Amino acid sequence: MNPYIPTFSVPVVAVSSFLYSGQSPEYLGQDQLTVELPRGYVIDVSWYPEHDPQGHYVIRVFFEFADQERMLPRRARDFKQMIEIVQELAVRFSEPEIAVSTSTEVANGA
């Protein structure tokens, strides 16, 4: 059985997948999917508790290192829902950042 590799509507740097569409307990563990995005963001998918069919996918986004999380983890019990969340986050964290001035910077002519 080959691992499932999701498709993305945005460029990705690398994908490491140990995802299988069936939820056989032997395939449910940590480091199920890692997606590296061009701007240094990484999407990480793991299954918790490991090898427990009653568990859930945990989807995290971090910047360069795992201790630099950029959002609260999202959860999904369903394979399809997890893939949709990962694809949505890939788009969101691939968009260019827009610098926003604060009202005091504008008022001071900065």
Tell me about this structure.
Helix content is 17%, strand content 25%. It is built from two helices and five strands; from the N terminus they run βββββαα. It has helices at residues 79-92, 103-107, and strands spanning 14-17, 33-36, 41-48, 56-63, 74-76. Strands 1-2-3-4-5 form a five-stranded antiparallel sheet, with helices on one face. The longest helix has 14 residues, at 79-92.
Number of helices: 2
Distance between the termini: 58 Å
Approximately what portion of the residues adopt beta-strand conformation?
15-25%
Question: So what's the overall shape?
Answer: globular
Whole-number radius of gyration? 17 Å
Q: How many domains would you count in the coordinates?
A: 1
Number of strands: 5
Biggest sheet statistics: 5 strands, antiparallel
Q: What is the chain-wise order of helices and strands?
A: EEEEEHH
Class computed from helices, strands and strand pairing: alpha+beta
| Mean pLDDT value | 84
Main features:
globular; alpha+beta; five-stranded antiparallel beta sheet; 110 residues
